[in-house]
Protein 1
Amino acid sequence: MNRFLKITGYTIRDQMRHKSFYVLLGLCLLFVLMIRGCYSGQYVVNGKPLDNITVAWHVSKIVFQVIASGMFLIVILLSMKIFSRDHEDGSLVLFLSRPVFRQQYILGRIAGTWFLCLVFMFILHATIFLTVWVKTGTIIPGYLTASLVCSINLLFIAVLVCFLSLYLPDFMSAVFTVGILFVGYISDGGYQILNSEILKTAVPSASPPALWRIIYPKVYMVQAYADSIIGQSSFNNMGPIHPILNVLFFIVLITTLMLVVFNKKEI
Amino acid sequence: MIALNSVIKKFDTVTAVDNITYRIEKGEYFALLGPNGAGKTTVVRMLLGFIKPTSGSIAIDGIPVSDPEARKRVGYLAEHHMIPSYLSGLEYLRRHASLMGLVGKYALLEVDRLLEVVSMKGREKEKSAAYSKGMKQRIGLAAALLGQPKLLILDEPVTGLDPIGIRDVRNILEGLRDDGVTVFLNSHFLSEVEKTCRTLAIMNNGKILVKDSIRSIIEDDETLEDVFIKYTQKGK
């Protein structure tokens, strides 16, 4: 446990040493700061002026999803090179020539990257939360809780990219991960649209989703669930399993497979 | 200290290590010699648990090498020692010390002492990207010596070192030998092996051809080079 925590700490420090981390952080903060202007504009919809609170509410919800999805890219970029870089720069030998279990190494590397991304995303979400509070005096309930809920997706992506990078070149593991996420977005996004209140009245008898769609990693659904926490609205789940449980199941499954594969790997 | 029992390692159809069995006793200063591709590095990698034998077993101090506890008092120096370019020599050594469980003031003093030993004091805060091959090798040796190891596994330790560096390493290793540390040396530098080692094995095509004390292997009118050539060229 102690060595796992040490490797987690080293991973956070190592990731923060790379210039690309600061470039990404800078770009994200710039984006968030640019959004600030949206909260003080005058908006008119159907001839009626909108109050600041309504605007802030909608903008914040959209930005929440943009940040949560944008973080996918960042976690992919930070995770895809973990093993190949460690192999090339001698870090792998550094860790494994010491009394460190391979499991401790893998879990430490992933936990460190995930924790860094979690904090990164939380800072961005908290910035929006505080901006809305300062600009409109309104606190959006559940905004930060929703951010923590979405962090489960980041862990899933980190685990998936790392697992794929054991078999594929780094770039290909990133592409495959994006592909897996994309299929889920289409499947779950389509389901959400078809089950929205407006479409339900227009298409009352939508057929139930296929089994693979119910089992497929519910990354989009976790975001939809987070959105329902912010909006304090109902959540249309696909199938009987909560999306958080679904994603957690895949995290455990892929991590177990990765540990088995890495244990057999020759260094 | 080290026990290899009927160890076979195959890479697809190639047998890199072919049924070797030997023991290295505590305090033994042992050299494994052999031409390129003989299987020496494979043995070293198996000793560290980096690769698993196809069959057979390897243990250090009675603990199977698959258990990381076997590496608790083991120092390792790789042939082309690599240090992450974003770490300084000091950070690298502190990381090693921490993973070994050395903490607090003792760890700092130990790192400091070893930087003196390998003549890297004054350069320890520079990023390793600025280090020469020989400097990296010195830092690697310091890392291997951390925590007063009972066993040192050295894979071509003098690669990249200048003559002064080679002499320094020899002096350090002789000091360790006198302190009773077990040393497993994998080297091509026959003259160094002849000067420092007490026992050796010559390996070729994955097999141990001979294992004995240097005095018994080398006859009066021979050098280690002659013996090495005699065994490795046999049957050619």
Protein 2
Amino acid sequence: MADGILVVLEPRVNRYHKVNLQLIGEAVYLAGKNGQKITVLYTGEQAEEYYVELSRYGMNRLICTKTSAANDYRSFSEAVIQVIEKRIMPKLVIFPDSDLCRLVASITTTRLGCALTAECIELRYEEGDYIFVRTALGASCIAEIKAMNCDTAICTVKNNVFQGELQIYENKECVLEWMEQEHGEIDVYYQVVQEKVLEHLKTMDIGEERVLIGIGRGVDSAALEVIQEVSKRLKIELACTRPLVESQVMPRCRQIGQSGANVKPALYIAVGISGASQHIVGVRDAKKIIAINKDRNAPIFQVCDIGIVADAKRVFTEVLNYLSSQEVTL
Amino acid sequence: MNVVVCVKVVPTHLVNTDTEENGGMVLNPYDVYALQKVVERKTDLDLYITCLCMGPVSAESVLKRCYALGADKVVLVSDRLFAGADTYATSKVISEAIKKLDYNLVFCGNVAIDGETGQVVGGVAERLSFFCMTKVERLLENQKKEWIRVKVLDDDSEKIVDVKLPAVISFSDLSMNENISLLKLKQAKRKEIIQWNADDLEMDGSDCGQKGSKTKVVSSTNKSLVKNRTPMMREEITNDTMSLLMQQIYQNL
């Protein structure tokens, strides 16, 4: 009988630390409802240090194993499979949303015959079953999904969707366990011939920003120049819609929406964005949304708090003027 | 070398959000990218390209575009027994079809634009016991036999990697432009789409379609995830508009 919750952490802690904590917070929240035990699997390099921090957050067990997970998804997959098959047989497995974890989740599912729901935005526990909520068909509908024909349900969860605050449980016991991997040598199936680190591609985590300016197709290159200047002066990061990534105006790490990031800024300024549901779904938790668009009928004006019907370039030129006048008086 | 490119047909309005048209189907733009990148190397790697699609019989006319894009053969696996499949059951059918084709190099798009799960790639690789390389930007000239050289665009680095066959390779990007000439399209329309059903794949329906799936959709609603807000509107750029905007920015920075 499957029992318990397994949280699989992204081994590249530097980039995914916050996401890992979000998953633990969600698992603790679910366990509060159904009394399930929480096991966390960490396959990265810094297990000892990480244990000290993680163990306080209310999990029951932390399993560590050293794999070259960041480099090879197969050794990571084998570790996950070994834990599920030999150690806990969980009812629920939660993975973060990264390319590596998505691949490992699908390998694990296929090998073990489990259920898999990708990119969930909500998890619920009702009458003994987990319900996985995700968007479908270009975020135009919300689907609720259940596992069937299997004991273990696996999901990957979209980053930054859980609201829960992490609590520290000083007195709760957390068992640390080291696991030796049982699989044999994994054949070398690839060789890196050449590697070049690209500074401009470095992933920018726009999920952390308090204020974001989002730009859409309504922003032409002249307007973009002015907006970039404002962004530089006020130190506000830029985000964008999918078409701007497709036309290579902006890097993918700045894309918001169903196929991009979910963000929760205090203020989101949507510029030249029509307001397609695929994009808006990614900023639905913004405290305040200001929309700037030339088209009075753009759907964005139904989902914003302040709407400015105007040309983007003119608005931001005014912002620059304002900033310059402030500098003079200062 | 014989290679497979997996493709899916998806609703038109998900690709072209400007269109009001309902019911139309197009090739998934992520798969178009995959096919275009494979066709780029068709001559110098001497590739025989088979496109493989699981979908309804009605996908046939859209699939002819694969010929226009440079495919040599297009196979549609279609059966009522395959309907309602989740990613688990889909990867089963796709991998069975690949086994029948007996190829050891498979290409896939990053995700399908309708489901946006990206989970079939890993499932196919696991079922075939092939190595899986994701985030490939393009194929390069080959250096070694039984290996394929690719350029990978990772989160923050660009790598040139040699991948040993057999392998499943998925790409990093999508293409919104099929770039098909009318002449090629006309020629493509005359070509046959090969159709396989469950019998051809020796599947009895227990491990495909809804029966072979591990998940079920219990409810699906069109209610918007986004709550409507009642905006304060400004129709002109006045001092008042600007100070409202600046005030909001400074309050939140």
Protein 3
Amino acid sequence: MADAIEKVSPLHALAEPGRFGDTSGEPGVGLSERLCDSLVQVQAWPDSISALKKAVKSVTGASIKPGNAVATKGDVVLMSTGPGRWLVEDETDDLEVRLRKAIGADIGAVTALTHARTVVSISGERCEWVLASGIALDFSADAFPVGTAKLSHHHEIGLTIHRTGDQAFDLYVVTSMVRSFWGWIARASAEVGYTVS
Amino acid sequence: MSAYRVESHGRIKHHQPVSFTFDGETVEGREGDTVASALLANGKHLMGRSFKYHRPRGAIAAGSEEPNALIGTTRSEGRFEPNTRATVQEIYPGLKTESQNSYPSLKYDIGAINDRLYMLFSAGFYYKTFMWPRSFWDKVYEPFIRRAAGLGVSPTVEDPDHYASRYLHCDILIVGAGPAGIAAALAAGKSGAKVLLADEGAEMGGSVLSEPGVNIDGCSAWNWLEARLDELRGMENVTLMTRTTAIGYYHQNMVGLCQKLTDHLTTLPEGAPRERLWRIRANQVILTQGALEKPLVFHENDRPGVMLAGSAQTYLNRYGVLVGRRPVVVTSHDSAWYAAFDLADAGAEVQAIVDLRDKVQSELSDEATKRGIRVLTSHTVTGTSGRLRIKSIRINPLRGSKAGRAETVNCDALLMSGGWTPSLHLFSHTKGTLRWEDDTKAYLPDQKAEACHIAGAGRGLWGIGKALTDGGEAGVAAATAAGFTTIAEAYPVENDREGTGISLRELPTDRSPGKAKAFIDFQNDVTAKDIRLAVSEGMHSIEHVKRYTTNGMATDQGKMSNMNGLNIAADALGKPQTEVGLTTFRPPYTPTTFGAFAGYHKGSHFEVTRKTPIDDWAEENGAAFEPVALWRRAWYFPKPGEDLHAAVARECRATRESLGIFDASTLGKIEVSGPDAVEFMNRMYTNPWTKLGVSRCRYGLLLGEDGYILDDGVIGRLSDDKFHVTTTTGGAARVLNMMEDYLQTEWPDLKVWLTSTTEQWATIALNGPNARNLLEPFVEGQDMSDEAFPHMSVSQCTVAGFPARLFRISFTGELGFEVNVPARYGRALWENLWEAGQQYDVCPYGTETMHVLRAEKGFIIVGQDTDGTVTPDDAGMSWAVGKKKTDFVGMRSLSRPDIAAPGRKQLVGLLTRDSKTVLDEGAQIVADPKQPKPMKMLGHVTSSYWSETLGRSVALAVVQGGRDRMGDSLYVPMPGKDVEVEVTGTVFYDPENARLKL
């Protein structure tokens, strides 16, 4: 029963495919939404960070990178969201269970956030421009290289932002606010023209 | 060609005529004209009426500092804007403009009677005039003042434009693209730094645009400018932005820019915003905003045709317009002489140059003589004539500080200059300090509060040569500070016009000073006499003088009036200027639209709205909604013909009698994990947690350090080291922040992680006698019997196949369960329960019914029944405070004498003697409604509802010594009646809690 409704998104009524905004030229950006199959937060104690990193690697095969560099391997994404704290994403449905087995209370805490975030992806030539329309980060490639993630917010909407390519970002948006966020990013994208896929 | 257009001058496209309208009359201008330059080219100086006296006014300046020429503009259908400065608005075909503040017409304005009655409108007149009789305050004075107040009319339809915003990070931001700004950009740009050069004008160049006769680096000023701007455009690291005003300079080098994108266009590009608000975060800021010319203060200095000399020079050299064929120049500064020479060379018959100084440089007088211009040094101007445009002026020789016998000289324009004031508004926004420099007779930047550099006229360096040199050096300094290396070029300048002058108060006059209409603040109609009156009436602080007279408080922010006002106030006070001080410049630098600030956030996007996974179902089923914090919550579910009262009564009955279903997803949820989780909970909450077993729940009470109730919620223990904490809907973020604060600063030794899981779970509450009957078939992994799963239990099981955290708890007093499932399953579970619940006539209910049901049971809502001054004992909840606990947040405050004192307000129940009367929430409570006023207030009503279950009203209240008043009669004064109430306990329904045990 759960699988049958898994892909019902809070954006289902908003993110309809098509071409929107300025249609005079090529669309400046493309927008899409993605529901994580598994998104789990792992948190280490100050003296157990190494152990937690080993545990995460044993479960996912990917090694946590230093700083805000994002580790990816296959469908696994590892993002730092604070000291001793990471988000782990993959396309399985039992990631939380596997992490919980590997990370005991002596190593850290494991919390499922799969349903707590909705990913809005933006790509295209004008994606930096659109994001900078409402998020107070420097999105230039020097300041925000590919393969890094940062925490920010748009108004009161918390965001984890992963630069996945030269012209591509994934934004992990708090689910209850994703409809408001979509409304903003659609308005901000209208000036440069956008597609929804 | 009009009589005032000079084809040989200007940067406009003389071969491109452009028609627009002014007060319905077609006016022909040229591409590149502003409304003001086009009107002046057609000999029209009269552009508006002043605010208070309705005096005829024309443009006095040529830029954004203009105080007089404010007009209404209609750019296209629905796109109307009042108070646009005619000196800034560019013309285009189809633009409609209109004058303001006049009736029935600009030339014949009834309001001009105010000018005749000017003695009634002196400084502070409204403080003195509208005092009596008191009965007039509401019905006469305020309506009258409101009608008279304001300038221009508001648009009547919704703004069809949209507005955008953008953040930008750069190494160096340069504000002002005059010679200093351009030289700074060239130097900084060559360093490789990311440079942004912004200017409020339609084209860059600043004073270079008005000084075509200057040679720079071996070529004409305009050719040099074009070449250098091309050079900047060719640098990938340099961005040039025109029509972009720096409106505010904030902490940590953030500067707000407002960029006008479409106000000059006939056809709007698809999807283009009208304006974009930029928030620039710059490593270094260079301010090259130049200087503003200061008017002279003399009788009737506001007549149309009276203009700043530098502005007349700009109209000629940028727009090819002679503002007068027979102008007179009056000045205390050399710069006005150069304006006179330019106008004379363009064909004007300059009648005279009147200089207040005894002597001027011989080169100036020689040049004037060469052009046949009469020179009158040591002379003053004491008045002007002409109803709608200046016709003549009175010139008097100076005998010391007194004016001699007047001579009348005919003219069609009067060009004045009282010297120049560095434009330091943005610098002042940062709390940078200013110092008075006597050499330049100006306030100059002193101590900096931000990483900024000031160059050119902004720090009192007059002339293009000095500005170029200084700008280049500023560019080098900024680039170096930002970590780059560069050098400044040298720009040799020929025919430069630096000039010097003196600074004056109001000019000597041969008439009674009390009758002189010598204007300082043209927009607010403030005269020199008003300043002196304010001082004589006790306003000795410049801030008080400003507010009493309104000098500098108009939309031009006192750009032209502040220095003259200060000079005159200092003289009236008998103090040097430096002891009087300056008023504060505040953002925005120029008037900025609300649209620019709102950006994308209008309509449904004005505020973030949080929605639950079940929100769509509620909407589809006709729910009325209410905002709770940022959430949109279902308030009630009316059936056709039902109002709030009827719907809530039905929802209450259904829940009490059978089954209600409620979306509780908005409740805050925090997962507290770690080996020290129980210790953390013990320290945070008043309740003890050590002995709470796994799979059990407890009501938790959270206090602030002051001992007052801050939040509450039911907390379930999922395992030895994990708690599922719930908070109030509005308090979730506050509680999480508080917990994090304690954890990170007070108890870093505790191994605990906190994670907000509000978004992870959808929460569905089932309440009523049939709650278990509905739920049980869906549950796997948990025996639902009362014995196996008693009240205040939690289980991790599956419900309808979904992984769930199932709580048996109740906020209604009925048998109750709250099912938490991962959020995306929320609606599916709800629909399953809804469908299966039809056999029990399941009823969806909203927040209003929830409030009624909980009030019947005496359950508090934090923030409604508490107000930040209620302790656990005040709320009758001492039972929730662990008696054996040695510490928790707020514990020590509970022993403060006033917290433990008798007579505190305590939460009680109130039953009205007339059971049908429902009290007003917030109503005050008294012991005797007949006691003399002011009455002694004993407390107030916190919650009040009609209880359908009990067939009467119920209320909760905080009352002084409330628990000692059980059974007493008190009174609640309400509109039209005093309602007698009986003080009772807080539990009105099922005090034995029998219904929880079904």
Protein 4
Amino acid sequence: MEVFLFAVGAALSLAGGLGVVAARQPVHSALSLLVVLGSLAILYLTLAAEFLAVLQVIVYAGAIVVLFLFVIMLLHTRTPESRPSRVGGQWALAVPLGLALWAGLSAAVWGLPGARRDLPQGFGTTESVGRELFGKFLLPFEVASLLLLVGIVAAVVLGSSPTTPAGPRPGGGDQA
Amino acid sequence: MTVDLRPLAPEVVVAAAALLALLADVFTRTSRARAVWWLVALVALGWAAGAVWTAGEGAFGVLYARDGLANALQLVGLAVAAGGMLLARDYLARVGLDRGEYYALVLLSTVGAMLMVASQDLLFLFVALETLSVPLYVLAGFARDSHRSQEASLKYFLLGSFASALLLYGVALVYGATGSTGLARLAGAEGSFPLLVGLGLVVVGLGFKAAVVPFHAWAPDVYEGAPVPAVAFMSVLAKVGAVGALVRLLPLTLPHLLPAWQPLLAALSAATMVVGNLAALRQTNLKRMLAYSSVSHAGYLLVGVAAGNGTGVWSAVYYLAAYAAMNLGAFGVLTFLERAGVEADEVEDLRGLADRSPALAAAFAVFMASLTGLPPTAGFVGKFYLFMAALQGGLLWLAVVGVITSVVSVAYYLRAAYAAYLGPGRAGVRLHPGPWAGVGLGVSAAATLLFGVLPGPLTTWAQRVAALLR
């Protein structure tokens, strides 16, 4: 049962991942992303991380992808079908290097100690995740709030309309 | 659970200063009022530096350690932040980009670097690394009306995210091999194959931030497109964070695995020195030249990490301090120049600088000499220490590569310095006076010379870090 669930989740997430990069329409990419995020939730379930699985569905599949879709909808008139631009000889390098990376990582994962550990009592529940998050990992949790602040500031900066040039800018006079 | 926040006081002060800089834009209308807020943020940096200076050893939980390495590199990071703010103010005011967000991003990025060099857990290291990097992506694209600035920002963001993903994959493999992301558990771990692959991926992720060959391809484009003060700041701060994390991860935590990681680090270091210096030779654009120079200096810093001994660790700290002074200065000179409405970023644009402003040209010559590694500058002393560490670590060949590439670098650094003393000036290039940037440059030039003439105090200070080595 577990293996079956894993196979389904893994196959779906791989297919979704391919869809994200291969789709020509941004909307199709976003919907493929939804498949990836949903199937990851299945994988979390097989790992006994039930709280994480629920969060994954609510936050990522629910909120984030909807946000993506909104942005695509708002920018729709301005985003034509995109085709990936290719550099000459890209494939000749990309395929062997990609295969080498895949082989190396597979060998590494294969070499991991595969012993099945007995999970501690209450593993993956809301309570245990909360205790870890606000206990041992309190500092990264707080720093993540700074990171989110950076994201907001970034959106304000990059979203603001360019001011009229009043002086030197980087680059050879190619003002937008 | 009681929590002692005192070890985190410097970070809290800097983060509060960042919030202040954001609020400043809302509550001020005049540029004079903004200057007051800006000064308050600068004073806060000084306050944080004082707090780091007087802080002893400490820890926050098991994730954060305030030890000698953290204290030393946090002071360097705070100095870089102060330099980044001083060099930016006049430039940003001149080009109409003087917004509180710029300084807020500089300060938040500094918080990320401060946490990164103190992080005792790979997951926390990742969060700190992102807090360091994301503001830098935005700073690269801060000039909203310049295509190149926007392109630089996007490139930096995409490649940076890719590198962060590799780092995360490495953390996952390390977790799989040791059952923990903490460095404490890692310190006793056996060098199994998955652990080594995981560490390799972490090194790749950090190497990207420090612009180590072959993960340096973004650097020239990003440095060329981003606004000069942002480049000055990011080129140094990212190295402080990345090299600090590498030092903590490899020589301090994993000395028993030295035979496994030393060849990798030494190879990366040698490749970085060779490629960076050779590529810099061919540049006519000053920003690109300094970008490749920055790549090559990542190689010199890695010499200290690869040496793996106490000398290597403290000489890397010394070189980071020296590099902060000389590289901030080198890019800082460019903030004064303008050619026909854009940044004057060609080597030729420097012509006649000595006639217009002898002080600026002299400072530029000092920075170039120091980047080359000529005495009596900080760069010479720093490289001397690094190569000495390589010899002590049994890496004679690496020291030889370092010396040869330094000799090669004389050609392009001195060509730039020479251009500044060659008249007449190029038509259309204007020199804008900037009092605050002048202060920043003066301090950088003084530090570059002082650490070169009297290296004693800084050396003693840096050597305390080596006490951490087990």
